[in-house]
Amino acid sequence: MSAVNHVVEIRDLHKSFGNLEVLKGIDFTVDRGQVICVIGPSGSGKSTLLRCVNLLEEPTKGTVLVDGADLTDPDIDIDAARRQIGMVFQQFNLFPHLKVLDNLTIAQRRVLKRGKAEAVRVARENLAKVGLEDKANSYPAQLSGGQQQRVAIARSLSMDPDLMLFDEPTSALDPELVGDVLTVMRKLAQDGMTMLVVTHEMAFARDVADRVVFMDGGVIVEQGPPSQVISDPQHERTKIFLRRVLDPTHVEVGGASDVDTLDASRSHETGTPPVDPTHRGGGGVGGF
Amino acid sequence: MTTTTEPAGPAGKTPGRSGGLSPRKRQQIIRYVQYAVFVGLVVVAALLADWPRLSDQFLNFGKLEGRWGTLFTTALKNTIIYTLLAYAVGMVIGLVVALMRLSQAAPYRWFALVFIEIFRGLPALLILVLFAFVLPVAFPIFANPPGGVYFQVAVGLGLVGAAYMAETIRAGIQAVPKGQLEAARSLGMSRGRAMISIVIPQAFRIVIPPLTNELVLMFKDSSLVFALGVTANEIELTKFGESISIEKVNPTPIIAAGLAYLIITIPLGFVVRRLEARQAKAR
After folding, report:
1. Which residues of B touch A107 (CB under 8 A)?
2. How does DSSP classify residue A55?
3. Which of A56, A238, B36, B94 could form a cystine bridge with B166, CB 3.0-4.6 A?
């Protein structure tokens, strides 16, 4: 069974929001222990892709296999499947009414049915891993953004996931706090965690990723080792994107015609710039 | 050179000063006139009023002699009991209806909407009377409900309160960011578990001030019990004030009952303002 070797296997994935087709046929796999970074302009569908992997967004068409289980099967126990998949959000999404320690224990106790002592032990272990064991009794609001994101990572790790998803984990942070979070993620990668990371941090992608996936317009344009995709991109769209990201002060505004094509292909999405349209999807808590 | 040209305007006018009173002075004068009118009206009212008769009619607390005990130990106590019973029923049903209103199952949503529209759209008095007189006929088991009037009030006023509280709680649930539910579900929690452990606790924090306000409203609405015909033991503040004032042919007891209401509602109003201020700061 070759499928089981892949932690994630995605086949012909399509996702539409109303008339807007965000994903137009994605095929790719993540193997155990691999770190995959997904890069691309906003609105390219990379966050939607990530959210399809734990079914926060339901694919319109296609299959998503995680650990060999087909998440798109309507009869699957999605809650059981999600226990294996950690998710870290751009906005942290810590539970503000619970102390840090309780943020880390509540799902262990309610979902994994661990005893209190065991849950607390695991929680403290993971807080130590992200360097925040002294914040166990603080409330999330008392922490900096970087600390909150590290707590969010520790919260996911407390469930002993097979796979960690990161949805632009540093995009909401002050620049000087980005490093703390990236360091934690790098350590996690070194320890062999399978990670799928949507990010704009090119340095992180270059240093840590086993494979970089460049997406634009709902399709994978190019993928491969960072030495290839980031240092020596083959496709024009990748080249333009990287030039804009890596050297933002020298972007040719309205100059080269290829820049215009890139803008034109995205113009229908620029109404909702920094956030992927996915986040507007469900509308309120009743969403899914 | 330039210094000589500055004040050269024939009338020596500076820009922004069109002559006459400045806007600030004008404002001041208007304010003084308002104060004067207000004080004048109060003085006229005070001069025209028949003070001896007023105090004899409305502040004749001697008429309550021997009844102060009943006012506090029976009437006020019953008012509080009616309120708390109805509030508890309203809170429980209100939460259920709020969840139904947000349910994925359309029939639940419709039922919740119809419930809310009916019980918000009808006068509380009508519902109370309906429950007292119609239900026993329709369902014989309600002819002699356990708890008597207490039961009728708890259900009747409770349902009215539930309709309002359901909408408040629904708004609170919807005010919890969507990411909270997503984070909970990502950790493997079922939708129900995520609601109970994560969303509803946060929603209640948001709606504590309006729910406390609802308690104040319900406290006053408990006066409608007087339409049900209660025994001496079941009497509440309004009925108490009214019946003693008829007996003594003097409205002072109604004033006393009113003051008893204020003993509860003014501190509660204070609490609501404190809660709101605290929340505004936390935001």
Report:
1. 184, 187-189
2. T
3. B94
Q: Taking CB atoms and an 8 Å cutoff, what residues of chain B touch A87? A: 182-183, 186
- Strands A194-198 and A211-216 come out as unpaired
B279 touches chain A (CB under 8 A): no
Domain ranges of chain B: 61-281
Residue A195 near residue A189 (C-beta atoms within 8 A): yes
Q: Yes or no: say if B209 and B275 are a contact pair by the CB < 8 Å rule.
A: yes
Count of C-beta atoms within a 10 Å radius of residue B275: 17
- ipTM of this complex prediction, to 2 decimal places: 0.84
Full-model pTM: 0.79
pLDDT of A262 reads 46
Mean pLDDT of B226-241: 84
State the DSSP code for A80: H
Per-residue burial over A173-188, b if 16 or more Cβ lie within 10 Å, else e, is: beeebbebbbebbeeb
Indicate yes or no: CB of A54 within 8 angstroms of CB of B186: yes
Interatomic CA distance for residues A12 and A25, integer angstroms:
5
Shortest Cα distance, chain A CAs vs residue B161, angstroms: 24
**Residues 219-278 of chain A whose Cβ lies under 8 A from any Cβ of chain B:** none
- Write down the CATH superfamily of domain B61-281: MetI-like (1.10.3720.10)
